[in-house]
Design brief:
The protein has 341 residues and is an alpha+beta fold. It is built from ten helices and nine strands. It comes from Actinopolymorpha singaporensis.
């Protein structure tokens, strides 16, 4: 049931109420301190200090036990390929499992990885582009069977609570009147357009396991500027190879307009390590549109399930519309700029 009021009350910082009992499953003593790990909205993630060590407790609010187990298999495989930076690795419980089922969803424990989140400085943006390229090269070497998900599906399958984009468009027109500008049918038409293009992309562009959520906050950096770790593989799966760079650009650029220096710095660094094909670069504008629509559909699904606020959906709808208008005018120039790198 969608709503726009306060979300249900949670324990302090959203930490599990039975945290001490949960930690005992890993032979970890009662916590001395607990704090939120960051501003994420999809899961409950907390840093725990216990027994003189630091851990990260992750409560999965969106994934089934099977999906979490698949993510953990991918992380284990990726940790063994010799990257110059770390990835999270789930710690086994006393019985050898990598997570504990709870009524709120699976809970896993990880060792704490040091570092600060990357920012929008030129140095961090360049580092992010290089790290993402190296990560994608490593992911390409993993068997497709390790992919926790296959993202090659229409927008109607992005979130189980949004099976019909036409219905969602009509609902948002009712609850967010005027947000689609002078074209209330824009959302449905845009979704149909990118879905038709997706089929051609899947047939012609390289596909591999990708991270699929490479925000700057998911890259940790040591004080000396070296990469420490890449976090948050919840959305990793099979997708277009270029999808990772598209996602990184969409999350690092300001105001949904990939025209600032972040795009140039990120793409230049990435492409210097992993050159993309001409066809991948040509698809970039429409893949940015797709990314914005996927974000909107995912947040709308969480709103329908009472896990997000309507304002979050409004922001993503406005952002997708703004990006679409910008790309209508500047998309060809963006392709030319990418081709020149």
């Amino acid at each position: 049931m969608p709503h726009d009021g306060p979300l249900p009350d949670e324990p302090p910082h959203g930490a599990p109420t039975n945290l001490t009992d949960l930690l005992a499953r890993w032979r970890v003593p009662a916590p001395d301190a607990v704090r939120p790990a960051g501003p994420g909205t999809n899961n409950s993630v907390h840093v725990v200090e216990a027994g003189g060590r630091r851990y990260v407790v992750r409560g999965y609010q969106n994934q089934s036990a099977d999906r979490v187990a698949a993510e953990h298999r991918l992380l284990t495989g990726l940790a063994d390929v010799g990257l110059s930076f770390a990835v999270p690795r789930p710690l086994p419980t006393r019985d050898g499992a990598t997570f504990v089922p709870t009524p709120s969803g699976p809970v896993a424990l990880f060792g704490y990885l040091p570092g600060r989140p990357a920012g929008r400085t030129t140095r961090d943006l360049a580092l992010a582009g290089e790290v993402l390229a190296y990560l994608d090269l490593a992911l390409a070497e993993l068997p497709a069977g390790l992919a926790p998900a296959d993202w090659r599906h229409p927008l109607s399958e992005v979130h189980p609570a949004v099976p019909d984009l036409g219905e969602l468009a009509a609902e948002l027109a009712r609850v967010l009147p005027g947000e689609q500008g002078d074209d209330p049918g824009w959302l449905h038409a845009a979704a149909e357009r990118v879905d038709a293009m997706r089929v051609r992309w899947w047939e012609t562009l390289p596909v591999q396991v990708v991270h699929n959520d490479f925000a700057l906050g998911n890259l940790l950096v040591h004080d000396d500027g070296r990469p420490s770790a890449v976090l948050d593989f919840e959305f990793a799966g099979l997708d277009l190879r270029v999808a990772d760079l598209v996602g990184a650009v969409s999350m690092a650029t300001a105001e949904w307009q990939p025209s600032d220096r972040a795009t140039d710095v990120l793409c230049r660094a990435y492409l210097s390590r992993l050159p993309l094909s001409t066809a991948e670069r040509a698809a970039f504008p429409d893949l940015l549109r797709l990314r914005a629509l996927e974000s909107l559909v995912w947040r709308a699904g969480r709103w329908r399930q009472g896990q997000a606020r309507l304002d979050e959906v409004r922001d993503r709808l406005a952002g997708a519309r703004q990006l679409d208008r910008w790309l209508e005018q500047h998309g060809p120039t963006l392709v030319d700029d990418l081709t020149a790198l």
